[in-house]
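Request: Show me your protein:
***
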Amino acid sequence: MKQITFLLRNRLLVLLATAVLMVAGVFAWQRLPIDAFPDVTNTQVMILSKSPGLAAVDVEQRVSYPIEQVMRGLPRVKQVRSLSKAGLSQVVIIFEDGVDTYWTRQVVFERLSIAREQLPPGVEPELGPISTGLGEILQYTIEGDGQSAMELRTVQDWIVAPLLKPIPGVNEVNSFGGEVKQYQVLVSPEKLVKYGLTVNEVVEAVEQGNANAGGGVVVRGWEQLYMRGVGLIKDIPDIDPDAPPPEESAE
């Protein structure tokens, strides 16, 4: 009864307190983060390593295991687990709760330089993006009449994805499906023996022939002309002289 009597005698104070609570509620509501599910993901850093040509067993033994052993000695690490597939290794380092995310990535990156020395040639591990299991917000498909799966994947990788990545809040754009455009050089063992070549020499020749080179500057009066040699591979005839040239569309 004393509390009710106090409230009735101090109506102005009650109204002021109610107004303050309403203003504070509106202020908090406007800044309240909205999410479909609470983010309960622990603090973790993911290391991804692509190893084309290696089976899952080789990836586990030669890529995932060395990285795991190096990461187990990091401070404030709770668990290290890995997933090995054909051509892909995924190592996840889980830290204690409350650890700064950027500090964890820094110590993992520093320790990763030691693991690189134990990996097979051509395997370059890299840190995954700063995201959680609940970070996926949108899935979309690209369709086009008369377009092949390779052409649609090219549009995704070179047009759509670069336009989405600069959007604020977008951390990564992952592409699935389609056919990635690539040029393959099929080496003939008989011709290698005939000309006394090795596969590595063929690979080096293709790499050296797929680049642009600068040629200096030619001065003409008040103008400067930059000379450059264009050698980037654009189509199959650039690496196979016997291949027919691509058809040109008539306008």
